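SEQUENCE-TO-STRUCTURE ENTRY
===========================

Backbone structure tokens: a row of integers, each naming the local backbone shape at its residue.

Task: work out the structure tokens from the sequence, keeping to the layout shown below.
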Amino acid sequence: MPRDTRIAQPADRLEELDALRGLAAFAVLIHHALQLIPRYETPAIAGAGWLRYTLTQLTPLRIVEMGRPAVLFFFVLSGYVLTRALLRNGSPGLGAFAAQRTIRLGLPVAVSVLLSVALYAGFAEPALPAEWRERSLFTWLEAPTLGQVASNIALMADNDDMRLNVVLWSLVHEWRLSLLLPLVLLFRGRVALFLAVVLMLMAIGIMGGATENRVLLGPQLHSTVAASLYFTGGLGTGALLALAFGQDVPRLSAQAMAAAALATLALFSMASDLPVYAGSALLIVMARQPGWLRNALRSPLLVGLGAISFSLYLVHVPVLVATMHALHDEWRPEAMAAFGAALALAAALPMYALVEVPSRRLARRVEKRLSRPARRVVLKAEAPAPDWAPEGGMPNRVA
């Protein structure tokens, strides 16, 4: 009889994925903090320009230089953990799941937008010098309007309107796509068909104007729909991983683990979204292997960072920009950026405790009330949903 090559882990706790989400959120924080620091000219040394370009564009350091790979990883991880939960517990119904996702993501989003408005009122310098406006993360370029506040909270803004918290562009797509995620259950045992559907939706998005490898939202509201279709590839990659392997992942030998690590580094070094999706899937598989990597990711510090990662993702841009407005005349840019990053980490703690945790509990209660147990599709005996089951989207609690 062939030996089982799959890893069985407790279904209710995936701390290693929680930690990966935290590290990705921290990378986004560092990326945006570095934007507050003026660009230094490359020294006039032979090969210095080539070295700088190679390190920042053609190595995994792209995740800090560009920021985009970390967000793409969020999409893949969200698709994986949400689909894995649906496969285990069954669908509560499209309506119940949509209500849960809307509350779970929407309430923290609304608070982050209102926080940005409050910080603008307290710290914004309307006559900010031009050289600093260029490093303001496209935030507070003008006074917030009621319509802008409403569109940002409702996740219905385009590129020009998403100016109170620019990271919300990713939540637009995460929210829209995750509402239909229970339909993935229709593709159990049909992995190839699911992959074909995902690629077709991506192609439709590109034909609709979503610029491959660069699109965020779009210049108009209808353009954001094309962008959402394009980002089906991110959540779809994670869902595909869960459909293919269920609750477990293949066990990798030491040689396979080394090859996967090299492949992941190479894939994250490419200036293309598709390789990053593939690298993200490999990273998830590697993180779930027993051994030093999983043990390191399960350290209390990284798990704690993962716990507040969604809150950190939501609050860090308004906090960084407020720090820049308040201190740009007083502090050196490097010190100001470091202080702003530390403040963002500190601000994520009350955001997590006072907003994220209550919204998660409310979302679970609403889902339970709206779901119809008789119509749920369950693979195993019904079990209480773990803490990470209703999660996903941008960084938030997995375990």
In short: Confidence is low (pLDDT under 50) at residues 1-11, 374-394. The chain has one domain: 15-37+57-375.
